[in-house]
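Good day; I would like, with your permission, to put a structural problem before you. The record follows directly beneath this note:
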Amino acid sequence: MSIMHSESSYSRASLPIKISLPFIFAFLIFWVLGVLLIGKHFSRQLDIDQRERATELASLVERELNRELTNLRRSARLLANEDPIIKGTSQSDRILLKQRILPSTAVLETNVIMVFNRDREVLVDTRSLPFRDLDIRTEAVLDSLMVGASLSTVVGSTGDRPPILLGTAPIKDNAGVVGGALLGTVLSDELLLQINSSIDEQIVALSGQQVLASTFSSEIDSFPWEEENHVESSVMMSFKGESYLAQVVSLDGLDKEHFEVILLVSQAPLHRAKARLWTLVLIPGTIGAALLSIIGYYLAKWIASPIQEITEVALNVVKDNNYSLQVPVRGQDEIGMLAVSLNQLIEWVGQYTQELELSAHTLEARVDARTKELSEAIAQLKETQAQLIQTEKMSSLGQMVAGIAHEINNPINFIQGNVAPLSGYFSDLVDLLETYQAEYPNPSDSILEKKEEIEIDFLLEDSAKILSSVKIGTQRVRDIVVSLRNFSRLDEATIKDVDLCEGLDSTLLILNHRVKEGIDIVKAYEPLPLVRCSPAQLNQVFTNIIANALDAMLETDSQPKQLEITTRTLSENRVQICIRDTGPGMPPEVKAKIFDPFFTTKPIGKGTGLGLGICFKIIQQHQGTIEVNSEIGKGTEFVITLPISA
């Protein structure tokens, strides 16, 4: 359906749109695909640059850590080669060592300076108070010092304290190794912040799942890092509601200790860059597409303008019958030849049209007059035909009903007249039988067998009931016959004063076989004065309206099925009858045509469309009005208003 609608809209479009639309549509497809590919290419490139940047920053962090280790070892060597340090260590002179080392603590900028003698005894320990509880005397470090080796490594501390970057150097004199110097910097938040000052990203130091230090402003209780994330490439992760690209820097210490420094590169700048990228790509792309579409449309319009001029002249010739119009010839191409041919065709058609108008002028006048006469005659004939058909139908129906009533009346009178004597005869026979039983209390065996065979007691009791039922049935049939005669009204004057409620009851009795199909009849009668009218015609109106209401309710599944008839006396010498059903109702377009002759909503062969049209005429003849109120799903109501004496 949508494809057909699109084709229909395209066929009705102007020529410039027809020419330009396919090219614009194809261009826009390639343009959008190109914009998307360019945007995705540069977006992917931004991702690659971000990963390369993360790798470079991780390398920078690793170089900073290695540089710190190298500086610690170099400072330890310089300190170990000084004569006061060698002398103080060989003589275990703590005072001499402190006099030399303490002034240098501020210059060295380390958290730990320790000097050991040959017996591995600590001669000097300059650790500040926060780092007093760090246990850094590992056997591996002391062993290396005692054999004259210098180290730059990472060692852990006790408990949950951070690890320490160490630089060591042996202290030697002429006799050999006399001790060792150890300089250390704790892997703390301050060290990470110092490293971070040049890269401006977040750094977290881990040992397993435990956070050792970080550059975050608030303390971190846990960090979502898994062992499988320890890979060479960067890993995307989310932490504290933000997205980061994580790059691992591994630190391996003595005694197989392993520490990880995680560089977290924030993805927020990347997201902003991507947003700016797509903005820069889409806005110029959209503007360019719009400009090219407009240029394409006006180019197509310029190409199609000669054809549109030809089309406009042809339409004006047809619309205004102005055969003096000519198409301007703007060239010698195919369009110019088409314009010349159209001008010649317009001239010829103008000549032929003028000749036809002269010859058909008088004929047209005669045809119009004759057509008008025939239309009026046909309309009058249809109205007369409708009235004759309905009148003949109702007349035949009335005669048939009256004949049936007359034929049924005679045998019913005969039966009803003989029921009373028959009851008396039966009573006399019962009395006689009881007398015989009293006079002859001992009947013969044959009589007893016969009484038992015919069940004399049940026969007498049931015969009395049968006679009573026959009497009630004949009275019911007689009431129906009277109602049929009242409905036909063939034995009464055409115009007389009648009780309309009686006519309504007679109509309901005639249609009683349909009412029994599950329809509830509600009678809300108010006492009406006698109305001067044609009772047969009004019964015809009641029959049509009530029959239509019954059809409407029985043909649908609407519930409840109820027919309500209301009568009331109005002021100004008028009465009103309202017939309302609970059927499906009528839409406005059906309601507007309901009284038109030959209009029907019933299937072909079931309705003629004459009934309500005749009803409208009958009510008009009685100087009354008939109105219909209907709403879809809420039923239909016919309101008949009649004068008491017309």
